[in-house]
Amino acid sequence: MSQISNPESCIPVIVGAGPAGVRAAQTLVRHGLHPVVIDESAAWGGQIYRRQPKEFKRSAQQLYGFEAARAESIHQAMSEIQGQIDYRPDTLVWNAEDRQLDTLHAGVTSVTPYTHLIIATGATDLVLPFEGWTLPGVYSLGGAQVSLKFQACAIGQRVVFMGTGPLLYLVAYQYARAGAQVVAVLDTASLVDQITATPRLLNKPALFAKGVYYVAWLRTHGVPIYRSIQPIAARGEGRVTSVTWRDKQGEHTLDCDAIGFGYGLRSETQLADILGVKFQYDQAQRASIPIRDEAGRSSIAGVYLAGDGASIMGAEASELAGELAALTLLEDVDKQYLSPAAHQHLKSLKSRLAHISQFRSGLERAFPFPAHWAKQITNEVIICRCEQITAGEIRKAVTELNALDLNRVKALTRVGMGRCQARMCAAAAAEIVAACAGIQINSVSRLRGQAPIKPIPFIADAQVISSLKRGEQ
Amino acid sequence: MTDFNETKRLSDPQLLRLGETTREPLSFLLNGRSVQALKGDTVLTALLMNQSHLRMTELDNKPRAGFCLMGACQDCWITLAGGERLRACTTFIVSGMHIKTLAGDQE
């Protein structure tokens, strides 16, 4: 394979070591570059292929089920290039500007320069609050999965899974398989939604079959599945002891000591945001996401986007998008570099990604966003769990103070101003503002990202301040 | 409600181990009391195997037990006896660590 002509002029940095980040790194190494790979986790794999701590002994099959081969392939790809990359685990990128990243590792901040940056920051759960969701025992679906995969723990003795999306059935299945008691699966989507989506889902028959398998397995193992539900409340004194929901038959309550819930995923876009990458509203994801061309370029030269951090496409697409972003980067560094075969491969990656995007649109149809959520949520429900801001306070900012922009609502109410920087509440708050004002969700704008993108200790702040002072002298 | 609800206390664990229980045990201090965890447990797991919450909220003194478990929601920041703060879901428990999970007026 041909090598790049001027590798010294190129300092590639990849943020994230999930499926997208690992494939990007592997592709750059294959073509003679030695990227820095910055990973917030202690070990590569990302969330989906997250590895258990070294003291744990479960097999890949036990941990990843049907995805064991893919998980092992990602882990192995990364371990094979260890001598050729600068891998930095446990490292947070907390700020970014033109050609440099501010990072934090073991309480110490440092600066990492780059000429080319691939952002592969992944996703977290899309959360739509309900009464009682801040009670101990209520976790995000992804969190419930991390507890099992990373710690071999169920989130409780009697677990209810609620919300919608493919993860709902997958996590319920993984819990039941691992010996947890799954009391019920409560899906806000209807069976009609799932049947209507079938033609598009058959675009990826293997993935579709897995989804069908999880549901069938749960049914044959006696796990009740309720569809077309509306969550009402998690109740309990100091911890959750029951869940209440509504469906066509009326209100129902089940005893449980844990609830895992979520409505799909949302991209972690903070890094792209503070770099000044252009965003646009995406109808299917009901969120603003960074603009990228079909090759993975952002609106800023030298900054590339890949994986669920750019747009929710799933793990398989993330691998392809990581490879594609890396090839595009190489092409941009040296126009002469890519061989005709490599060009052909690049084209095939694009068409495979387009194919998966068809499947994703089927998933959006099968597990639609609960359109009436914002109208139904009662004023008393906490939306921002950091600052404890309720739906009523958000509505008051809209109706009494005429705030129609989410940043204005934030300024007036403190919604989204807490430690999580609106990761858990921004989507819900935007829905409430739009519904309350009677305007389209895309016109409430998105919350501006700010550094540090996650809390950093004061001692680290002090280091930054003193280094800034040194710079001034 | 059923017996199940009535028997659930705040001092009962929130999490349930489904395996991997032969790891090396270790001791740490929880509000001054010596309790057990296993090597490889996060601080979050170690605490929630001993009680049902991690911390009390600053605003209204209500219990919280984390939420996302992947370092995004920042709900699980806890305080060590020495005053140092750490994120429980992304930090491993260490033998002898002293963690306080009560609000100021309960210490």
Quick recap:
Chain A has 473 residues and is α/β, with parallel strands linked by helices. Chain A is built from 16 helices and 23 strands. Helix content of chain A is 38%, strand content 21%.
Task: Please provide a written account of the structure.
- The complex is a heterodimer of chains A (473) and B (107).
- With 473 residues, chain A is α/β, with parallel strands linked by helices.
- Chain A folds into 3 domains: 7-124 and 266-338, FAD/NAD(P)-binding domain (3-Layer(bba) Sandwich), CATH 3.50.50.60; 127-263, FAD/NAD(P)-binding domain, CATH 3.50.50; 371-473, Orthogonal Bundle (Arc Repressor Mutant, subunit A).
- In chain A, 38% of the residues lie in helices and 21% in strands.
- Chain A contains 16 helices and 23 strands.
- Chain A has helices at residues 19-30, 60-64, 68-80, 141-151, 166-177, 191-196, 198-201, 205-220, 270-275, 315-333, 340-366, 373-376, 391-399, 406-413, 426-437, 458-472; strands at 12-15, 36-38, 86-88, 91-97, 100-105, 108-113, 116-119, 123-125, 138-140, 153-154, 158-163, 181-187, 225-226, 230-235, 242-247, 250-255, 258-262, 265-267, 279-282, 287-290, 303-305, 382-384, 389-390.
- In chain A, the strands form 7 sheets. Chain A has a 5-stranded parallel beta sheet, with helices on one face. A 5-stranded parallel beta sheet of chain A has the order 9-17-11-12-13. A 3-stranded antiparallel beta sheet of chain A has the order 4-5-6.
- In chain A, a hairpin with a 4-residue loop joins strand 19 (279-282) and strand 20.
- The longest helix of chain A has 27 residues, at 340-366.
- The radius of gyration of chain A is 22 Å and the shape is globular.
- Chain A starts with 11 loop residues before the first strand and ends with a helix.
- With 107 residues, chain B is mainly beta.
- Chain B is 10% helix and 26% strand.
- Chain B has 2 helices and 8 strands.
- In chain B, strands 3-2-8-6-7 form a 5-stranded mixed beta sheet. In chain B, strands 4-5 form a two-stranded antiparallel sheet.
- In chain B, strand 2 (25-30) and strand 3 form a beta hairpin.
- The model of chain B has no long low-confidence stretch (mean pLDDT 90).
